[in-house]
Amino acid sequence: MTDAGASPSVRRLSAWDAAELQTLVDDYGSPLYVLDLERVRQNYRRLAAAFPEADILYAVKANALGAVLSALREEGAGLECASAGEVQRALAAGASGSEVHYTAVNPPARDLDWIVDTWADHPELTVTAGSEDTIDRLADRGYDGRLCLRVNPGIGAGHHEKVQTGAAAKFGVPAERAVDVLEDAADRGFDVVGIHSHVGSGVSNDQLDAHREFVARMGDLAREVSEEVGDLEFVDVGGGFGVPYHEDEAPLDLESVAEATREALGEVDARLAIEPGRYFVADAGVLLTDVNTVKAARDTTVVGVDAGMTTLIRPAMYDAYHPIRNLTGDLDADEREIVPQTVAGPICESGDVFCADRELPATERGDTLAIGNAGAYGYEMANQYNSRPRPASVVCEDGDIRLARRRETVDYVTRPEREAHNGSETDRKTDDHPAVSDTDNQRVR
Ligand code: LLP
């Protein structure tokens, strides 16, 4: 196993072995998500080395594959879950309640019902509430367990406005009300254990000042809460550590983030908790996709691939840059000419492009392309628009390769509709919380 301290802090798309990736797509078909668990572990160890004093939780939403949850648990991570479904996955991956934080964002009743039921068997579970009425709704269900309060410190950061949370009204109780809300919760018998906030996602080196201000505000609040409400077990400053998507982008200055965080929390008598997602998995994953058409358009060449915005939505949703490499071209003996190309998916929307006019080696029909940094928020945000089944996922570790999730079929996509027509009872409102107890969701490896 690689020594994580020595692992490079960036793994570029060019570092993947083209022949191995080509074999995977030959064996498992296209499009295909590939995840390298060894790299996930390296990323964890590097981050843990920068934050030796912190409790590290993995934000499951970045990549909820059971193999990822198991690997990160083995490394020592807890799991931060955004829904009852994610908590179910965490427990199925072997986590105990004490390793799980459930962050309730406008939680559906069905989620809260399931969480409170589950808490009976896992009393060490932590629930993070972001509004007073979420606390009321927990109390209504008889919950008086471990409670953390998500606050809104009024400062955000992140790679796109859609992922900047620290100042967005949607998230958390305004920090200036935190003491009152926590006093009230403590009076009502909740076990108040922490405060939480998440600045946003994809914080880069040029946003470190905002991140510093964010952790400073959390430090000040933690001191105030400790004095006025009582001791806190932890202060959770969320995730958001960015990774370089552009080929020439420098990695995040982790030491400087860690140093600023330590300074901000200085004398607070509570443990520091962080909950990154992207940092662990982004560069551990690639998306492989076959080229079906190559068309000379008026001003560019359009390369039509079989993955689309339904497979990887980040370029369409956030104008996110992902590196693209032609594996077949790299394996060819002949040098290919570099020409501007637009790589587009099969979805009937003009936004369904992975890049526009990018200088790439000339593509031919039948080539396989690799799209880099696809391990975070790739499969997790995939959907079935245009009745497109979601792709398969394989994981590799120590030379071992296995299918982690099979490719969906059109039959799978249309099944809920056929079952509704068959008069199935499962979608009627019952007490069984069908959305989280469906057995489809229980297979995690
Ligand atoms: N904690 C909380 C409460 C969060 O909401 C998130 C991400 C994280 C931790 C982990 O953030 P990370 O370390 O992964 O940046 N789909 C977007 C990212 C959305 C992030 C949502 N929350 C993307 O593809 O860029």
From TrEMBL:
Q: What does this protein do?
A: Specifically catalyzes the decarboxylation of meso-diaminopimelate (meso-DAP) to L-lysine.
Q: How does it assemble?
A: Homodimer.
Membership in a protein family: Belongs to the Orn/Lys/Arg decarboxylase class-II family. LysA subfamily.
Pathway involvement of the protein, from the record? Amino-acid biosynthesis; L-lysine biosynthesis via DAP pathway; L-lysine from DL-2,6-diaminopimelate: step 1/1
Q: Where is this region: Disordered?
A: 407-445
Could you list this entry's UniProt keywords, alphabetically sorted. Answer: Amino-acid biosynthesis, Decarboxylase, Lyase, Lysine biosynthesis, Pyridoxal phosphate
Q: Can you say what this protein is called?
A: Diaminopimelate decarboxylase
User: Which E.C. number(s) belong to this protein?
Assistant: 4.1.1.20
PROSITE patterns with a match to the protein in the record: ODR_DC_2_1, ODR_DC_2_2
A Pfam family matched in the record? Orn_Arg_deC_N
Catalytic activities: meso-2,6-diaminopimelate + H(+) = L-lysine + CO2
GO BP term, example: lysine biosynthetic process via diaminopimelate
> For substrate, which residues are the binding ones?
R278, R314, Y318, E349, Y377
**InterPro entries per record:** Ala_racemase/Decarboxylase_C, DAP_deCOOHase_LysA, De-COase2_CS, De-COase2_N, De-COase2_pyr-phos_BS, Orn/DAP/Arg_de-COase, PLP-binding_barrel
One GO molecular-function entry: pyridoxal phosphate binding
On this chain, the residues bearing N6-(pyridoxal phosphate)lysine are K61
